[in-house]
Amino acid sequence: MRAVVITTGTQGDVAPYTGIGARLQAEGWKVTFATHKVFGDQLESCGFDFSPIPGDPAALVSSQAFQSWERSGYSRRSARDQVGRIKAIIGDVGELMYEVAGGLIDAVPNDTDVLLLSGTAAPLAYHFAEARRIPSMGIYWGPTEPTGQFPPPMGGARSYGWWGNKAAGHIGLRITNKAYVKAVDRLRAQLGVPAAGYADTRRRQARREWPVMHGFSPTVFPRPRDWRRGMEVVGYWWAQRGKRWTPPAALTDFLAAGPPPVFIGFGSMSPGEVERLADLATAALRKARLRGVIQAGWAQLDARNDDVLTIGAAPHDWLFPQMAAIVHHAGAGTTGAALRAGVPAVPVPVTIDQPFWASRIVALGVAPKAIPFCALTADGLADALRLAVTDPVHTAAARAVAAAVEREDGAGRVAKAVARLAERGF
């Protein structure tokens, strides 16, 4: 039996799904990842088959519109301005998805039994699964379905009340769907099936109770009670280490040379102003009298002195538990990995759903505060770090949340759902 994971986007849109892939492999499935070429070596090092699809996500996050969106942040923006800025990047996202549509058919092996569709790929790839009558399910790292319980994550953390949140969620879906319209039309034409609109597709999914497994912890956010049947919150699925990875000597030597340092990283975000950001991070660590490990990431940060080490990629499950605190951009996958580590955090959300996850970290007591990237200063970061590492409230909260998420078996629940789906068929 072969399961194919289709995903598009950045590192955070790929790495968490390796946890599902590993669990399925352990239960006898062949697992293929269909995603961008840049992730091929990483996925093959984890033991998965790899099938490339077109598109360069690094070019997307480096685009002028995306850079402007990231730098603007959310904290000082009205809802109308946020919507306007989202619309500004729809064209860039649409071009990426149009490229994906051109190669998706060839990327899916003929012997595929089940398709697993990420939240970024599903609005396009669902049409392929439906046309070819291949059983499929959504595997989303964050909530996209409208609910009255919280605002759409893409719109930040501010609540508009029950009906306002619900309405904002539907508006958000319709806006983001515009990025997929041309790609869906292209794919359906290639498949030889009639055009299909957004609303009709959602109605078909609801009638079929199309399953969507959400890979975040119910401890962090419980399943909304107004979601339709078939949508579940199952717990995190943890990114896998490449089989060839070993920690570099410079990193192990640095960790052994003093007290636990602070991790600072922004993942696949590319917020610009690299030198200023590296200097800011170094100054904050110096003010707080803390050592630091800075991850270069797609922003290519670089800062070095006796108390600061810059590193490349490193598995979060290995690195984070050795830290005194974790400064991160509050992406969904990094948030989960940081919570699992059981150490305090300081979220610095940049854009997209990050303010939403940052607000949850603070609400859980794991972080003293969130600092929007657009408001980040050395003094502000130093103050937050001092609180994070010295206030026992945050340490206790971090350990309690870590124990809770470790008990959950998100990948196992997905594997059971995949087995039921394969048995039931399309």
Low-confidence stretches: none
How can the largest sheet be summarized?
7 strands, parallel
Structural class: alpha/beta
Cα gyration radius (Å): 21 Å
| CATH fold naming of the largest domain | Rossmann fold
The CATH architecture of the largest domain:
3-Layer(aba) Sandwich
Distance between the termini: 15 Å
**Shape estimate:** globular
- Residue fraction in strands: 5-15%
Number of DSSP strand runs? 12
Number of domains: 2
Fraction of residues in helix: 40-55%
Overall residue-averaged pLDDT value: 89
Enumerate how many helices there are, as a single number: 17
One letter per element, helices H and strands E, the order comes to: EHEHEHHHEHEHHHEEHEHEEHEHEHHHH
How are the strands of the largest sheet arranged? 3-2-1-4-5-6-7
Full CATH superfamily name of the largest domain: Glycogen Phosphorylase B
Per CATH, the class of the largest domain reads: Alpha Beta
Describe the structure in your own words:
The protein is α/β, with parallel strands linked by helices and 426 residues long. The protein has two domains: 2-236 and 408-424, Rossmann fold (3-Layer(aba) Sandwich), CATH 3.40.50.2000; 249-407, Glycogen Phosphorylase B (Rossmann fold), CATH 3.40.50. The relative contact order is 0.13. The protein is globular and about 65 Å long. The model has no long low-confidence stretch (mean pLDDT 89). Helix 6 (122-132) runs parallel beside helix 8. A seven-stranded parallel beta sheet has the order 3-2-1-4-5-6-7, with helices on both faces. The protein has 17 helices and twelve strands.
